[in-house]
C-alpha cells in the first residue's frame, strides 16, 4: 500500500472522512497524488464504513468513479447500499444523476439504470432509460433493475412496454430469472416458444436459470423435463455449469446425498469438476451435519490441487468447530492463513477455546499471537480471550 493511501485510511480511522475525501481529490503534497486505481481503492475503503450521506457523496465525487472500472462499480454499489440504509433518496438521485451528467456514454447510462434499481427507485430507472434512444442493452439493464428492486411484475411490464426494441438472448434470460425468483418458473416455457419464433437460441444460462427456479419451487419433475428439453429439442448436453447448478440447488434443499449422486454421475462421465463443484458439496454436507463427508470432499479437492473461494473455507472451519472437531479445524485454519484468509472473530475465538479444551494450548496461543499481530484493532478482544486460556 502506498504512503499516500495509508495516509487516507489513517485520516478515516481518525474520523475525518471529509478530509480523506478532499485528499483524494486534491492532496496538498504533489508527491501524494494518487493514480486512478489508488483512488478507486481508497474510495472503496472509505465507503465500507461510511454512513453519512454528504460524506458518501464527497468520497464518490473525489474519486471520480466510473462504471468501466470493476472497483468503481463495487464502490458505486456500496455507496447506493449505504445511502439506501438511511433512506437518502435525494442523495441517491444526486449521485446517479451526476454520473449521467459527467459521463454521457452508454456504459454509464446502463449502470445508472441498474443503480436506481438497486435503490428501489424504478421510476428514476425508467426515466433514465427513456432519456436516450432505447437500446437492447439498456432494456436489459432496466429489466435487471426491476429484479434488483424485487418488483417482478414490472419486469414483464417493461419487457412488453417497448416493442420496438429488439430483444436478445440476454433480454429473455433476465425475464426467465424474474420468473425463477418469483415462483413462476413454468412461465419460462412460453418464453422459449417466443424465442423460437424470433430465431433466438436459448443458451446454458436460460436452462440453468429454469433449473434453479424449479428446484427452488421443489418441482424436481420439472427439472428432469428441462434436462430432457435441452437434449431432445436443442441438442444441448448438460455441461459442468448445469451440474454445478443442480448440485448447488440440491444442497440448498438439504438433499446433499442426491447432489453426491450427480457428482458420481460426473465421475462416470469423466467430467472435470472445478472448485465450485466441491464447494457446494462441502458446505452442503456441513449444513446437514455430515462433517465426515464434508472432510472427504475437502481432502479430494486438495489432492486435485483445486482451491475454492474463501467462503467455503470459512463455512468448513465454522461447522468443524461447531462439531468440536478442532484438530481438523486447525488444519483448515492453517491452510487459510497461508492464503491470508481469516474467518470472523467469533469463529476464531471458538477454535482457540476448543484447542485449549483438547489440550492444544500452545497452538491456541500461537493463533492468538497471529491475530493480535494481524489485526491490532482487535488486540483488546484477543487479550481477553488469551487471559481465559489455561496457563
From TrEMBL:
Keywords: Repeat
SUPFAM superfamilies: TPR-like
InterPro entries reported in the protein's UniProt record: PPR-containing_protein, PPR_rpt, TPR-like_helical_dom_sf
PPR repeat ranges, renumbered to this chain: 168-202, 203-233, 239-273, 274-308, 309-343
Short name of one Pfam family: PPR
Domain of life: Eukaryota
Protein family (similarity comment): Belongs to the PPR family. P subfamily.
NCBIfam families for this protein: PPR
Protein name: Pentatricopeptide repeat-containing protein, mitochondrial
